Amino acid sequence: MADDGMLMNWEISDTPIFAKPTVQGGRWKDRLAAKRQARGPHSREIFREGRQDNGKEEYIGPNASEHPPKKQRFDDHSANDDIQHAPPAEEYIPRSRAPPAEEYTPRTRAPPRNRPVQEESRRSFVAGKLPLGSISIGGGASKKITFDDDTRDTRKPYVDDKRKPFVAGKLPAGSINNGMSKEVAAAKPGQVVSSLFTFNPSSKTKFEEPPEEAQEPAQPSNAPLTDEMATFVNLGLSRRLAAHLSTKMDMKAPTAIQKAAITQMIKDDSDAFIQAETGSGKTLAYLLPIVERLLAMSKGDAKIHRDSGIFAIILAPTRELCKQIAGVLERLLRCAPWIVGTTVIGGESKQSEKARLRKGVNILIATPGRLSDHLDNTEVLKVAQVRWLVLDEGDRLMELGFEEEIKGIVERVRRSSLRVETLNGIDLTALPKRRITVLCSATMKMNVQRLGEISLTDAVHIQADPADEDTLKVLPAGDETEEKKFSAPAQLKQAYAVVPAKLRLVTLASILKRAFARRGSVMKAIVFISCADSVDFHFSMFSRPPPPAEGDTVIERPELPKGELTKDTIAHGTTFSSDTNSVVLHRLHGSLAQNIRTATLKAFTQSTEPCVLICTDVASRGLDLPNVDYVIEYDPPFSAEDHLHRVGRTARAGREGRALIFLLPGEEEEYISILASGYKEGKKALTHNTADDLLRKGFGGTGREWEERATEWQLEVERWTQESPKYLEMARRGYQSHIRAYATHVADERHIFNMQTLHLGHLAKAFALRDKPGSIKVPGLRPAKMTKADRSVAARKAKRGEVDVDKAPEGERVRKQRKLDLDMPTVDGNDAARRMKKKMKEHMAVASEFNIG
Ligand SMILES: Nc1ncnc2c1ncn2[C@@H]1O[C@H](COP(=O)(O)OP(=O)(O)OP(=O)(O)O)[C@@H](O)[C@H]1O
């Protein structure tokens, strides 16, 4: 039966007159008359007991005690709709004109001003402020009666115990059965304990049902090629290198981008821009031709040696990425141990880096800051032999503000004169005759083009379309007509879930419970969250000890990695572990010390147990984490590019992968079009999930039992939060930082992620909070400076696409700050650190308060 949401609180009373049995069936007027009769002639007086006849009108209704209703501040939503939104005047009825108690029905409610119009007919009373005239029936249960929406057939009331009405803190204990009543009784004054399943806005989009016929699974777009001719040898690699790839690295054939890049870079000495989707093997696409040409110089005993000079410099934006590239190079060079690679990335003393440089190196992997530092201060670092300068993850290099350093490095390398014939008896003719710059990126954003202008000359644009091997492209740079849009791997199964704010946390728990219900279905999952404080809260919450009832079963848990560094970043994921499948939880964000980040990431990478990584975007770029089969974007990304990098952590090198993004009902549903633009088949490639579906699958049970289980789970987490000042503060911090991070979406997308429509009260529930949002003040977090008026101006400007960055609303500044924060601990070198600090000061006055990296 459809639910029209008409709710009444049926409350028990000790007075015998109320203990009469329920009158069921028939029209409501008939039932009403019957009940009146049952109560006898004085029933109205009893109901009106307590009326103050002091000349003032007394009001009844949901918010009677607050009448006349207070004007609502923008940020003062409560988790309880009844409290939160001042209802229209007609809902407040002077008591003298009040209908008989039984007749009390809530009048039309105006939809809240700042969120999408929702089903008007779904209402509930604040139990603590129950209208005096409410009807009570036996059993002590507060029951919701719903009627068929279409027919309004009041003859067949549907009493549904599991759907709980909202409760404010003052309800007498025992008024409502099930878990809610205990919570209400225990709630402190001013707290709000709200029901999960009432007052949720519904989706505005009409979702098409997926077609009946089974769709052909999409062919992987970043897999090694299967064409017989596509062997490494056919591309021009030596047998030695090809055999090493095949036997020691398990790579039998190149990927499409490798095919295009190797062919080009072995025979031609032009600059190159390599653009290919995530997980397509770009690292080897530039490393293989470099190593091949260094190998070709070595004939018999005449080999290059570590002190022959630096032939290639590879720049990457973060230490993690540098280490990852160094790892791939190290494996590759096992077939040519006389070629030496090393890193200069900070994190250890400059002296030891200098010592390594002095010993000699042929391929140097560096972060721009640290390399600039060494170029200025380390005499032994000579760049005269450098033939290749590779800029990996170009967009990230620019985002982190390395433009100046890169300019300096490019200048330094170009200035030094190049030796091209012989070097200590070694034939140099196999090497490029000129210096080559290679720029790599998965996206072609404006900032990448800017980096291209700084570093490339007459470059070729190398792209690959594996669907049509004839079109493996080597294009003149700047050929806009042929430019391929960056897309997600075709085999990635992308879904989105439209989940109301209140249900977010419990839905995430449900998804993870289901994903790890059986051993082997999902091995590794990554959950992306917008800010560090929120990561910390979710990590602690998901790893909290199970409640005593569950604790009776002894669950065998795998041993966690030992070590000081990871003791606070790795824990058992108790929430979604089952007795047959224990899950290990990791957390990662830019505010953790570098050595902790490295150790945590290593543990996640090497783990053979099922595990989950909860992290910020710090783990979204370039990291090659093996066996990640599920990516959940719990908080939507800050830009479409970020989304593609995040989901690119799965479905790598032709493997399968799933991704799910959470969206709120309303404006956020527009994001579906952006998701669809990453796929050839558009929206058909996407799967739609509702919160109800996800909850039902995760919490199980028969009928609507999942609702009760979900409610129990949510209440348990709320208790856990309330009972400890530490976790309460953690939840509040997470909540506040989340809201601030929400304001930092790129201007183009801010009409989708619109602060105006963000329901702060419902969002508080997703952080297991019972506070009214306006009252959440966390020490150390300054309140946002933007006024409501500022926000509207910003929203209007964003809509017109004319946001002025210099006079930007806080969102823009905070977004910049987020980018800087994100990798702050990664950026190395004293100069780099000074530069970052300076930029932080320039960009924001709120640097220290804001912890969303
Ligand atoms: N020819 C190949 N055959 C099989 N696996 C490969 C091949 N080339 C690369 N891989 C694997 O593919 C994965 C992705 O490679 P890589 O990290 O270089 O991708 P990428 O294009 O740089 O991705 P991103 O844009 O996310 O940084 C790695 O695990 C790598 O070992």
Descriptive notes:
With 853 residues, the chain is α/β, with parallel strands linked by helices. Among the domains are: 232-463, 3-Layer(aba) Sandwich (Rossmann fold), CATH 3.40.50; 494-547 and 562-731, P-loop containing nucleotide triphosphate hydrolases (Rossmann fold, 3-Layer(aba) Sandwich), CATH 3.40.50. Helices cover 32% and strands 11% of the residues. It is built from 26 helices and 24 strands. Strands 9-10-8-11-14-7-15-16 form an eight-stranded mixed β-sheet, with helices on both faces. An eight-stranded mixed β-sheet has the order 19-20-21-18-22-23-17-24. Strands 1-2 form a two-stranded antiparallel ribbon. β20 (584-588), α17 and β21 form a beta-alpha-beta unit. The protein is elongated, with a radius of gyration of 32 Å. The two termini are 47 Å apart. The model is unreliable at 1-21, 41-178, 466-484, 782-787 and 797-853 (pLDDT under 50). The chain binds adenosine-5'-triphosphate. Adenosine-5'-triphosphate binds at residues 224, 251, 254-255, 258, 276, 278-284, 442, 622, 624, 648, 652-653. The site of adenosine-5'-triphosphate has 19 residues, from α7.
Topology:
Blueprint: H1 28-39, H2 43-47, E1 59-60, H3 81-84, E2 93-94, E3 144-146, E4 158-160, E5 167-168, H4 178-186, E6 192-193, H5 239-248, H6 256-267, E7 272-275, H7 282-296, E8 312-315, H8 319-332, E9 341-344, H9 350-359, E10 363-366, H10 368-377, E11 388-391, H11 394-399, H12 403-415, E12 422-423, E13 426-427, E14 436-441, H13 446-455, E15 460-463, E16 473-476, E17 492-498, H14 504-515, E18 524-528, H15 532-542, H16 548-551, E19 570-572, E20 584-588, H17 594-606, E21 611-615, E22 628-633, H18 640-647, E23 657-663, H19 671-676, E24 686-690, H20 691-699, H21 705-723, H22 725-742, H23 760-765, H24 788-800, H25 810-822, H26 830-843
Parallel strand pairs: 7-14, 7-15, 8-10, 8-11, 9-10, 11-14, 17-23, 17-24, 18-21, 18-22, 20-21, 22-23
Antiparallel strand pairs: 1-2, 3-4, 5-6, 12-13, 15-16, 19-20
The protein binds adenosine-5'-triphosphate.
Pfam family, one: DEAD
Biased composition (Basic and acidic residues): 42-59, 67-84, 145-158
Protein name: ATP-dependent RNA helicase
